[in-house]
Every structure is written in structure tokens, then in C-alpha cells.
Amino acid sequence: MPQVVNHSIELLANGGLGMAMFSL
């Protein structure tokens, strides 16, 4: 998997987790 794609997925995962925590 390309590094750029891997980084984008990691950013999306971290952002989703942060928004889930914030909404709680």
C-alpha cells in the first residue's frame, strides 16, 4: 500500500475517533 494512501487512512481513522470522543 502506498505511503500516501496509508497516511490518509490513518488521518481519517484518527479524525473519526476524535469526533466520536468529542460527541460523547
Overall spatial form: rod-shaped
Can you give the helix content as a percent range?
over 70%
Largest sheet: none
Order of helices and strands: H
Radius of gyration: 11 Å
Terminal Cα span: 33 Å
**Unreliable residue stretches:** none
Annotation, overall tally of beta strands: 0
Average pLDDT over all residues: 78
User: Which structural class fits the helix and strand makeup?
Assistant: mainly alpha
- What's the total helix number? 1
Q: Strand percentage, roughly?
A: under 5%
Protein name: Auxin efflux carrier component
Organism: Trifolium medium
Could you walk me through the main structural features you see in this protein, from its secondary elements to its overall organization?
The radius of gyration is 11 Å and the shape is rod-shaped. Helices cover about 90% and strands about 0% of the residues. By secondary structure, it is an all-alpha fold. The protein has one helix at about 5-24. The model has no long low-confidence stretch (mean pLDDT about 80). This is Auxin efflux carrier component.
Topology summary:
Layout: H1 3-23
Protein name: Auxin efflux carrier component
Properties at a glance:
Auxin efflux carrier component, 1 helix, mainly alpha, rod-shaped
